[in-house]
Specification:
The structure holds 2 protein chains of 2 kinds. Chain A is mostly beta strands. Helices cover about 0% and strands about 50% of the residues of chain A. Chain A is globular. Classes of the chains: A mainly beta, B mainly beta.
Chain lengths: ~120, ~110
C-alpha cells in the first residue's frame, strides 16, 4: 500500500511564532498532487494548500507554505505568524495524477496554539 | 460556495441495526467519496462513486455498502452495525482540483 506518514501526533506553537508540520509519503507515480487539509474542532475539513509534483516551486498561501522535496518524498507545512485560529488537526494527503482523485491521508497532527 | 451536507452530525445506534448515512452535494460533481476517520489513522476510504449507480470499493469496504441513485446524493449503509464501526464518517465530493468535505457524522454503536 502506498502510504502517507505524519510523524508528529501533536505539536504546539506560541502565538505569532512559526511551526513546521512534517509529512513523508510513498508513491510509484511520477505525477501526483499533495495536499494539506485543516480540520478545526467540530468544524468542516478545508483545504489549506495544494502542490503539484511536477512543479518545482513550493506552493504558498498567505501564512502557509510548503517545503516540497520530491526526491526525498517529503512535504512539510510551515505556518508563519501562528494565530489562535490555526489550532486544528492537520492532515497531509496525496492523490494520483488528477488532483481530484482518491486521496491517501496521513494520521494527522494536532496543532495547539498557545496565547 | 461549494456545499456538501450530511444528514446527521451525531448518531447513536444499537448493535445489529441497519444504519443509513446520507450525503448531498450541490456542485454537480460526478465523483463522491465516503471516508472513515479514526484517531491516529487519519481518513480511510470506504467506497467511492464516479457516476450514478456506479461504485468502487476503497481500502476498508467490509461491513459497508453504498447507494447512488441520484448524482447529488451518496448514501453509506451499515447493514448490521457493530461496535467496531463506531467512528467519524466523512463524505466528500470532487472537483477537478480538490475534494470538498461534509461536516461529518459521529456514529456511536452501542
Amino acid at each position: 500500500a502506498q502510504t502517507v506518514t505524519q510523524s508528529q501526533p501533536e505539536m504546539s506553537v506560541q502565538e505569532a511564532e512559526t511551526v513546521t508540520l512534517s509529512c513523508t509519503y510513498d508513491t510509484s507515480e511520477s505525477d501526483y498532487y499533495l495536499f494539506w487539509y485543516k480540520q478545526p474542532p467540530s468544524r468542516q475539513m478545508i483545504l489549506v494548500i495544494r502542490q503539484e509534483a511536477y512543479k518545482q516551486q513550493n506552493a504558498t498561501e498567505n501564512r502557509f507554505s510548503v517545503n516540497f522535496q520530491k526526491a526525498a518524498k517529503s512535504f512539510s507545512l510551515k505556518i508563519s505568524d501562528s494565530q489562535l485560529g490555526d489550532a486544528a488537526m492537520y492532515f497531509c494527503a496525496r492523490s494520483g495524477n488528477n488532483a481530484g482523485n482518491m486521496l491517501t491521508f496521513g494520521g494527522g497532527t494536532r496543532l495547539m496554539v498557545k496565547p | 460556495d461549494v456545499k456538501v451536507t450530511q444528514s446527521s452530525r451525531y448518531l447513536v445506534k444499537r448493535t445489529g441495526e441497519k444504519v443509513f448515512l446520507e450525503c448531498v452535494q450541490d456542485m454537480d460533481h460526478e465523483n463522491m467519496f465516503w471516508y472513515r476517520q479514526d484517531p491516529g489513522l487519519g481518513l480511510r476510504l470506504i467506497y467511492f462513486s464516479y457516476d450514478v449507480k456506479m461504485k468502487e470499493k476503497g481500502d476498508i469496504p467490509e461491513g459497508y455498502s453504498v447507494s447512488r441513485e441520484k448524482k447529488e446524493r451518496f448514501s453509506l449503509i451499515l447493514e448490521s452495525a457493530s461496535t467496531n464501526q463506531t467512528s467519524m464518517y466523512l463524505c466528500a465530493s470532487r472537483s477537478r482540483t480538490e475534494q470538498y468535505f461534509g461536516p461529518g457524522t459521529r456514529l456511536t454503536v452501542t
